[in-house]
Design brief:
Length: about 220
Amino acid sequence: MNRAKHIAIIMDGNGRWAELQGKKRIKGHEKGAQVVKSITTFCSENPEIERLTLYAFSTENWKRPRLEVEFLMKLLEKHLTNELNSYIVNNVRFEPIGDLREFSKSLQKTIQNVKEKTAHCDGLVQSLALNYGSQNEILRAVNNLKNQDDDITQVMLSNALDCKHSVDLLIRTGGDHRLSNFLLWQAAYAELFFCDTLWPDFTTEELEKIIKKFTKIERRFGGLK
Ligand code: IPE
Ligand code: IPE
Ligand code: MG
C-alpha cells in the first residue's frame, strides 16, 4: 500500500465560491484560510503524512487587481499571527517556499517568526508556497549552483530547490486540470487528483477519500510491477 508521505494541494476556487453566493471574492479567501487550518490539523493527526505543501500565492498572482493582492497579503499576515499557537500545539513545523523577498518587510518578519518559533516541532511539516512558481524556483537554484566547476547533478539541483522533497499525492481543487507552475520538478512521479469541489468547500472527509484511493494505486516509477 502506498503511503501519502508528501501531499501537495493547489487550493483553487476561492473566488468562484464567493461569487456563486453573491459575495466579494475576498470572502472566498477568508473561508479558504479556515479550510487551510482544518486540513493542516487533520494531516498533523495522521502520522503517515509527513509533509503538506499548500499553494497559497503564485508568482503569477501579482497580476490580480491591487485590492485583491493587498487583501491576500493582509490575510496571510493575520493567519500566520493568529495560528502560531496552533502550529506549536499541533507540533507542526512551518517551512515556507517561494521567493519571499518580494513581500513587505513586515510580512517577511511574520513569516520568519513562525518559521523560527516552530523550528523545534517534529510532527507534520506544513509548507505554504508564497510567491512561489516552479520555474522561478528552478532558475534561482540553477543560478545558485552555476559558479562551480562540476556539472550539476540531479541530487545537487534537487537539494538547491526550496522544496527538496518529491510529492506523492498532488491534489487540485476547483475543477481545472493544470499545474499552474506548482512543483513541476518535485511532482515528476506524483499521483494527480483533480476535484471539482471549490477550495472553501473542501473537507477532511474528501481528503480522506482521495488518500484511500491513492493508497491502492500501483506506482511503478517506470519499472514493472
Ligand atoms: C485560489 O483561488 C487562491 C489564490 C490563487 C490566491 P482563486 O482566487 O484562484 O479562485 P478562483 O479560481 O478565481 O475561483
Ligand atoms: C493557482 O491558482 C495558484 C494558487 C492556488 C495559489 P490560479 O487560480 O492562480 O491558477 P490559474 O490562473 O487558474 O492557472
Ligand atoms: Mg483560481
